[in-house]
Design brief:
Blueprint: H1 2-6, H2 14-23, H3 32-43, H4 46-55, H5 79-84, H6 104-112, H7 116-121, H8 124-131, H9 144-154, H10 167-175, H11 178-202, H12 205-240, E1 243-248, E2 251-256, E3 265-268, E4 277-289, H13 291-294, E5 300-301, E6 309-310, E7 315-327, H14 333-339, H15 350-382, H16 402-423, H17 427-445, E8 448-450, H18 454-459, E9 464-467, E10 479-485, E11 488-490, H19 500-511, E12 517-519, E13 528-530, H20 533-545, H21 550-556, E14 557-563, E15 571-578, E16 583-591, H22 592-597, E17 599-603, E18 609-611, H23 616-628, E19 631-641, H24 650-656, E20 662-671, H25 678-687, E21 691-695, H26 700-710, E22 724-726, H27 727-732, H28 735-741, E23 747-749, H29 753-765, E24 770-774, H30 780-785, E25 788-792, H31 798-803, E26 806-808, H32 813-855, H33 862-880, H34 904-932, H35 936-957, H36 974-992, H37 995-998, H38 1005-1016, H39 1018-1025, H40 1035-1058
Parallel strand pairs: 9-21, 9-24, 17-20, 21-23, 22-23, 24-25, 25-26
Antiparallel strand pairs: 1-2, 1-3, 3-7, 4-5, 4-6, 4-7, 8-26, 10-11, 10-20, 12-13, 14-15, 15-16, 16-19, 17-18, 19-20
InterPro entries: ATPase_P-typ_cation-transptr_C, ATPase_P-typ_cation-transptr_N, ATPase_P-typ_cyto_dom_N, ATPase_P-typ_P_site, ATPase_P-typ_TM_dom_sf, ATPase_P-typ_transduc_dom_A_sf, ATPase_P-type_domA, HAD-like_sf
Function: This magnesium-dependent enzyme catalyzes the hydrolysis of ATP coupled with the translocation of calcium from the cytosol out of the cell or into organelles.
GO cellular component, one term: plasma membrane
Length: 1060
């Protein structure tokens, strides 16, 4: 064995492979003959083994890099061949096959622990790529078998979420309500006393009825919450389904983050979320934010040798790169953490918080009324003023059986508690939940994904929308339509219009100074271009019109240093070394006027370099002319470097990217047409009282042209002073001037993310509710600062999406207008339900209180009140909370921050209906027997039936708070009609069939007609009421005025009495 270790072979790499074979940490217990046989097999395949040397880094040959990578199952020495063979390319391909017995745990922990020692033992990123069967240039094969094998070996890029709450847990939560528990106790006592008094055959009716009614309320509430939870879970899964760019078989492609596999090569750019744990393969200036993992706010610089580790969940804040995925799913640090975290579904929106206060206030009123009713009924009972069914006194002092006393007290307590149940508008939070869940679902269909519930309602109050231009107002389908070479406008035959040396410089400028890519499956196939819309347009122009071959460019040039593009600098630079002659070139690309300022010379169509001194003004006019035609102007500049600079030294590397004295190569104009429906959407927002401000990075001429085309500026081209400004101008204003001018601004050009953030702050200080669109990483501060952050689903970075409240899936401004419409709809639906519910609350409380005080009898029993509670809380909420947006909503002014939830119009409507119901039902309570010549039981049934039908008819009135025709569009709302129909059917069943359960009597057709007639009167009353004018001042202000008046009268009275 020693002889074999010492033997050398002069062929390519054989000695290296023999070293691997002889030093792998396997215990050799077989005969030396077996070992020699294995060695001979290896030696005979020396040509194939020589290829392994080209793949495995030479720097690791003497440190036995693969000695610890594999899990040993057998001591047989022939396993040496099994280890080496996967490192040999398969015949006819450039791919390396996956090593199936790699130590997955050690590979995963290497990245999680940022273990450089293990990294070096694996042979660096090249060694890991070989083990994972990944070709650095082409990635994995991506075949079905390859994908299946990797998924089986390493798992999928998903993590096990904590199981969602089951339906039973929602039932338990519903039972935790205090009033429900009190009712259950009362029902239990009533059931016990009833069975004792009347026997099991009939004694269970009252107590059992309360049990059934409470059970129905609990189940319906639990079912609504359960469905909402399921819907939010679905939306959460959709929002987590990030698109990731990977390279498979040499082809860049977009896949779901859940489909990322170990061995994949993932392309990263600014704003991306790192989808899995992995290693840096190639790239420049990569900085990541690991605060979500480590809590450290400082950005981490990624370096190939010192810090190559990339953690899933981190965000790219600068630079670009390709990473090699080493572990996915629960094997990553992010996956481990997320598996143990359950989503918080108890998010309370501002509107829900306001409703909680309203519910609490109404509940206190109800509690007070219930307490008075309890006291009155107890006093009347113990003073002998109540009678049983036979007309005898219920309480006769010591003669009354103690069981009868307890039974009566329990019945009285149950009635009082039920009043509390009806008084507390539990349906308000449920209505908010239902309308939010419904609107979220509908908005998803309308290309808007809600990430934060509060955004649904807040969007309805928006007074200003600050929007981007590219992709939001425009189609984001850019094409190069103009090309200026020096002072000449080149119309066609672009490649023939310039000298060969200039053409080569353009190839370098476009093909290397880019984050895009070009893939051609074959020489005859159409190129597949990926990148941002601007990059794609320029690359397509260079490939199709300039004959650029990107693969050849990359193979003949070496990238020395890169300065990536961002929205603040509005330019990107690259330093490259041409391998054929070792010349170093610097290329800059960016906003035309910025690049022009960096240049002192330009190249004409003959390739002659000329001074810019005399021609600069002409080029500035060319740029302005192109911009006035709505073109985005991109310029290219170049310089050849002759100085000897150490490019590996970071300090000196920045010096190579010269920022002045450059030579202008040319200017291209990119056309991005406005979306066909954007003008109508802008007009809709303006009619709704919402101001639109366009904030763009384009120059002022392009911005003005696009804004005019979209309808943000007047179509006649007239621009008032202060309507169009540049970001620098706005930034340099004093605080007072900014606050004075911010309302007038309609377009801000050449803006940076800082300018956008500053504008949002100013608008909020002036009391505006601000919505902001954004797609870049640097837009995150503005998106967070705004009341509603709207990120773009297609072009938006993951950082922007995480900072936003709503994701616009199609990047379309029309969808922004749709979100505004839905936001108003949510607010309006909740107001409609509040009006409906408070009508029921006021009527039920007043009727029961007056009846109890005057006669000692409560006309609506516990079971009947619970039934009313069920239909108004749950079915009513479902009917009114699912109304779709109407045109009228976008014809009103926005709801301000301080606008009261219950408006004067709502008070007018609900008081009119409540007073009518109280008046009619009290007449029935005191004179119903004589009017209709019926007994007490039928009279109570008439009151119950009329009261429920009043609520059914009032549901129609509540569909619109101001519109006289409440039936408009009703046939389109099938859910509303269905709920009304179900309510009526159930009411018939309650009255006619469940008599003992509901304590009712059968009614004749004539009596049903009387109840329907009483209820139907609510329609003409609503029609007349809505014609009554009301003050714009909030109702609460009148209450305050009355309080102030009373206080002054009391003060005058006290003053007068003290001086008499």
């Amino acid at each position: 064995m020693t002889s074999s270790q010492n033997m050398k072979y002069d062929g390519h790499g054989s000695s290296f492979i023999i070293d691997i074979a002889t030093t792998v940490n396997y215990t050799i217990n077989k005969a030396k003959k077996r070992w020699r046989f294995a060695y001979t097999a290896i030696y005979s395949r020396r040509v194939m083994l020589a290829l392994a040397k080209e793949v495995i880094s030479k720097r690791n040959t003497n440190s036995n890099p693969y000695s610890k990578l594999f899990q040993t199952q057998s001591s047989n020495s022939t396993n040496t061949i099994d280890i080496i063979e996967p490192l040999i390319p398969q015949h006819g391909t450039n791919h390396y096959s996956l090593v199936p017995d790699v130590d997955k745990a050690r590979l995963a922990s290497m990245v999680k622990d940022k273990n450089l020692l293990a990294f070096n033992e694996f042979g660096g990123v090249e060694g890991v790529a070989n083990i994972l069967g990944t070709t650095p240039a082409k990635g994995i094969t991506g075949s079905d078998d390859d994908i299946a094998q990797r998924r089986d070996l390493f798992g999928s890029n998903t993590y096990q979420r904590p199981p969602p709450k089951v339906f039973l847990s929602f039932v338990v939560e519903a039972f935790n309500d205090t009033t429900i528990l009190i009712l259950l106790v009362c029902a239990g006592l009533s059931l016990g006393f009833g069975i004792k008094e009347h026997g099991p055959g009939e004694g269970w009716y009252e107590g059992g009825s309360i049990f059934v009614a409470v059970f129905l309320v609990v189940v319906v509430t639990a079912l609504s919450n359960f469905r909402q939870e399921r819907q939010f879970d679905k939306l959460s899964k959709i929002s987590n389904d990030i698109k990731v760019e990977v390279v498979r078989n040499g082809r860049p492609q977009q896949i779901s983050i859940f489909e990322v596999l170990v061995g994949d090569i993932v392309s990263l750019k600014i704003g991306d979320q790192i989808p899995a744990d992995g290693l840096f393969m190639s790239g420049h200036s990569l900085h990541v934010d690991e605060s979500s993992m480590t809590g450290e706010s400082d950005h981490v610089e990624i370096e190939p040798l010192k810090s190559p580790f990339l953690l899933s969940g981190a965000k790219v804040v600068d630079g670009f790169a390709q990473m090699l995925v080493t572990s996915v799913g629960t094997n990553t640090a992010w996956g481990e953490m997320m598996s143990s975290i359950s989503r918080d579904t108890n998010e309370r929106t501002p509107l829900q918080a306001r409703l909680d206060k309203l519910t609490s206030s109404i509940g206190k009123v109800g509690l007070t009324v219930a307490f008075f009713v309890l006291i009155v009924l107890l006093i009347r009972y113990f003073t002998g003023n109540t009678q049983d069914d036979k007309g005898n006194k219920e309480f006769q002092g010591s003669k009354t059986d103690i069981n009868d006393v307890f039974n009566a007290v329990v019945r009285i307590v149950a009635a009082a508690v039920t009043i509390v149940v009806v008084a507390i508008p539990e349906g308000l939070p449920l209505a908010v939940t239902l309308t939010l869940a419904y609107s979220m679902k509908r908005m998803m269909a309308d290309q808007a994904m809600v990430r934060k519930l509060s955004a649904c309602e807040t969007m309805g109050s928006a007074t200003v929308i600050c929007t981007d231009k590219t992709g939001t107002l425009t189609l984001n389908q850019m094409r190069v339509t103009k090309f200026w070479l020096g002072l000449e406008n080149v119309m066609e035959n672009f490649s023939n219009a310039m000298a060969s040396n200039v053409l080569q410089l353009f190839h370098q400028a476009v093909g290397l100074n880019t984050t895009g890519s070009v893939y051609k499956a074959s020489s005859t196939s159409e190129p597949e271009i990926s990148g941002s819309p601007t990059e794609k347009a320029i690359l397509l122009w260079a490939v199709s019109d300039l004959g650029m071959d990107m693969d050849e460019l990359k193979s003949t040039h070496k990238v020395l240093h890169v300065e990536t593009f961002n929205s603040e600098k509005k330019r990107s630079g690259i330093a490259i070394k041409k391998e054929t002659n070792n010349t170093v070139h610097v290329h800059w690309k960016g906003a035309a006027e910025i690049i022009l300022d960096m240049c002192s010379n330009y190249i004409d169509n003959n390739g002659i370099e000329k001074s810019l001194d005399e021609e600069r003004s002409k080029l500035e006019k060319i740029i302005q002319g192109m911009a006035a035609c709505s073109l985005r102007c991109i310029a290219f500049a170049h310089m050849q470097i002759s100085e000897d600079i150490d490019y590996n030294d970071k300090e000196n590397a920045h010096q190579i990217l010269r920022k002045n004295g450059l030579t202008l190569l040319g200017i291209v104009g990119l056309k991005d047409p406005c979306r066909p429906d954007v003008k109508k959407a802008v007009e809709t927002c303006k009619l709704a009282g919402v101001s639109i401000k366009m904030i763009t990075g384009d120059n002022i001429f392009t911005a003005r042209a696009i804004a005019t085309e979209c309808g943000i500026l007047d179509l006649d081209g007239h621009v008032n002073p202060g309507e169009v400004v540049e970001g620098m101008e706005f930034r340099n204003y004093t605080e007072e001037v900014r606050m004075e001018k911010v309302d007038k601004i309609r377009v801000m050009a050449r803006s940076s993310p800082l300018d956008k953030h500053l504008m949002v702050q100013c608008l909020k200080k002036k009391g505006h509710v601000v919505a902001v669109t954004g797609d870049g990483t640097n837009d995150a501060p503005a998106l967070k600062e705004a009341d509603i952050g709207l990120s773009m689903g297609i072009q938006g970075t993951e950082v922007a999406k995480e900072s936003s409240d709503i994701v616009i899936l199609d990047d379309n401004f029309n969808s922004v207008a749709t979100v505004l419409r839905w936001g108003r709809c949510v607010y309006n639906n909740i107001q409609k339900f509040i009006q409906f519910q408070l009508t029921v609350n006021v009527a039920a409380l007043v009727i029961n209180f007056i009846a109890a005080v005057s006669s000692g009898d409560v006309p609506l029993t516990t079971v009947q009140l619970l039934w009313v509670n069920l239909i108004m809380d749950t079915l009513g909420a479902l009917a009114l909370a699912t109304e779709r947006p109407t045109k009228e909503l976008m014809e009103k002014k926005p709801v301000g921050r301080t606008e009261p939830l219950i408006t004067s119009i709502m008070w007018r409507n609900l008081l009119a209906q409540a007073l009518y119901q109280i008046a009619v039902l009290l007449v029935l309570q005191f004179n119903g027997k004589s009017i209709f010549n019926v007994n007490e039981e039928v009279k109570d049934t008439l009151i119950f039936n009329a009261f429920v039908l009043c609520q059914v008819f009032n549901e129609f009135n509540s569909r619109s708070m101001e519109k006289l025709n409440v039936f408009e569009g009703i046939l389109k709302n099938h859910l509303f009609l269905g709920i009304v129909g179900i309510t009526v059917v159930l009411q018939v069943v309650m009255v006619e069939l469940l008599r003992k359960f509901a304590d009712t009597e059968r009614l004749t057709w004539e009596q049903w007609g009387i109840c329907i007639g009483i209820a139907a009167m609510s329609w003409p009353i609503a029609w007349f009421t809505k014609r009554l004018p009301v003050s714009d001042k909030p109702f609460a202000s009148h209450v305050k005025w009355v309080k102030l008046l009373v206080f002054k009268i009391k003060h005058i009275f006290n003053f007068t009495s003290s001086h008499v």
